[in-house]
Amino acid sequence: MLDHDAAAPVHEHVTDAIKAPTLIRLTPNTVLVRFETLKVYAALGAIRHLVATGAVRPGQTVVDSSSGIYALALALACHRYGLRCHIVASTTVNDTMRAQLEILGVTVDQMPPSDDLRLDQSRRVARVRELLAHRPDVHWMRQYHDPVHHLGYAELADLLLRALPGEPLTVVGSVGTGASTGGLTRALRRHDPRVRLVGVQPFGSVTFGSERFTDPDAIIAGIGSAIHFDNVHHELYDRIHWLDFQHAMAATVDLMRRHAVFAGLSTGAAHLAASREARRDPVRTHVVIGADTGHRYTERVFNRHREALDPASLAPVEIGSLEDLAPPWAAMDWARRPHGPIVPTQERRKDPVP
């Protein structure tokens, strides 16, 4: 029922408006948390903390590497707090994103075209280090490694607890830098340690041990990585799903077809994993993190919708060890372990880890 007495908020800055997600119940036990750009929480929380503690000061330049949505989020946070911003951008950053950044006053260094995302990430890190060598006054945000990026997600946890009171929660989202799923789950577990976390990975990512595989359509931006991220805390994750591009594309198109939700590829991948988890554990509410809209994926995904597989025909192979990992879709109980060799399921039963 609508509250006709509730006044619409008047925001002081656009970041207040776009950081708030839309919650959509897709099924009785699946809720999509849909963002225009999720990483506004990370960037705002980080910049607010750095300014408050004096680690950065108004007018100072901050720099970081980004494949897209963090770049815009950081630019917006800098706009709000009076900081200068320098982005070393992935080759995947498109003209629309670059134009927004430049209008916001961001200095953009974009990497040359490349189909090798490992090389792209290495080039970006090298360029950041070069900048720091010449500009010691610049603050490196280090979104991949600095835990300050977890802080903003406590606010999202409070929002979910108010919106879904008393519901046992399972968070399902792309791992990426680890900040969103990690920061959100840590904050939720302070209220209920039984909150579960399911991470989604592409094949080819080093983060959860699939680097020996290659995906013809490359690592899905925002899900995996070609380099190690300190902000990924493996011991937070209960389950991991590995998906190839075709499976993620199928779920992204299906989300639009069935629920009229236009979202990005990482959201589709999380939606597919959550659909499977919701059938496995129907008592829990599965919260799907929808990191961004589908605009960046018009050519690669939505214009190819007739090619999309039928998600109803897809199912993961359950594995007990990374040795058994294989495309196109695999799932495994990670059981909140640090990263390392995974003991097969039958051995875990004999010698459980506390």
* Gyration radius, rounded: 20 Å
Shape, principal axes of CA atoms:
globular
Average per-residue pLDDT, rounded, comes to 90
DSSP, total strands: 12
> How do the SSEs run, as a string of H and E?
HEEHEHEHEHEHEHEEHHEEEH
Largest sheet: 8 strands, mixed
Helix content: 25-40%
Number of helical regions: 10
Which class do the helix and strand fractions yield? Answer: alpha/beta
Straight-line N-to-C gap: 46 Å
Major sheet: arrangement of strands: 1-2-10-7-8-9-12-11
Strand content: 15-25%
Low-confidence blocks of residues: 341-354
Oligomer state equals single chain
Keywords:
single chain; 354 residues; alpha/beta; eight-stranded mixed β-sheet; four-stranded parallel β-sheet; 10 helices; 33% helix; globular; disordered C terminus
Describe the structure.
The chain is of the alpha/beta class. 33% of the residues lie in helices and 17% in strands. The protein has ten helices and twelve strands. The strands form two sheets. An eight-stranded mixed beta sheet has the order 1-2-10-7-8-9-12-11, with helices on both faces. It has a four-stranded parallel beta sheet with strand order 5-4-3-6, with helices on both faces. Helix 7 links the parallel strand 7 and strand 8 (196-202). Helix 8 (245-259) crosses helix 9 (265-280). The longest helix has 18 residues, at 117-134. The model is unreliable at 341-354 (pLDDT under 50).
